[in-house]
Design brief:
heterodimer, A: mainly alpha, 6 helices, B: mainly alpha, 73% helix, 0% strand
Chain lengths: 104, 231
Amino acid sequence: MSDWALIAYCGLITFLTRFSMIAILKKEMFNNEIREVLSYVPSAIFPAIIFPAIFLDINGSIHLEDNPKILAAIIAMGVGIFSRNILATIFSGLASYWFLIFVV
Amino acid sequence: MNSNFKIFLKGIIDVSPLMIPVVPFGLIFGILAIDIGFSPLATMGMSLIIFGGASQIVLLQLFSGGASSLVIISSVGAVNSRHLLYGAVVSEHVSDLKLIWKIIISYFLIDQAFARSNEYFKKNNDKNKYFHLIGGGVTCWIIWQTTTFLGIILGSAIPEKLGLSFAVPLTFLALIVNDFRKIINVIVIIISGLISTLGYNYIPYKAYVIVAALGGLLTAIILTKMITKHE
């Protein structure tokens, strides 16, 4: 598949998830149970992007020792939970990562 | 009743604070896409056609890992399933509109605009209140396209040693940081994280994102069932 076809399909599926409910929904189709399960979608899916990017090296092997990303991510998480601020979370993580690789 | 333009402006103002983190996110996307080997035109095309940060990052991540198109498209679909909820919530406010408006609103139905306009919709009952969502969506659209473009230009100037790709997991971490306060969410996060990390090499076709997400959701369903039984 060409890059452009891939981009078009990804665009189409993104649009359809946004459009389908607006287009077809009858309100009663969504009970509280489905609503609650959908509210867990971010917690279920984002760790699948976060964890491998932190714990795996370029070759895909698990990398636990001497891995500055782990400590930096923990610091970012702590700052995030405490501050509830998206920017503070991202930048505290990046700053501690740079500190660990360039200074320590 | 307020004029269309006034409501549109109110949408812009309400969504603005949420736009600050979009700036680094867009820059990082542009830088990474070029780094992975997409052309500047295809990178711009992604932001214009897909217009969804999480979708585009997942596309990059899996593409650079060598996943097949089918796996990439279905993973993007899985990441987007949260939009089904947004659509369901918004649908009751826009059900009387013409199809063309529903299509326009769907294109602009992003996390930040949804969050702010949903609050506005609950408090206002003007017929033209949907201009609020369009105002928020257009604001984010302009910032997203501009920062993607800047990322494309800056890309070659930023040394790889900085490890900017680490900003990707940090951005997603920032999006779920409030969930760390709730026990079910914490368990779901750990399950999904473990499945994806341990299964990265063993789950075929790089389907680890989908498998981990389904594992996490299944955990959430079981846990909420158990808790409601106890109450």
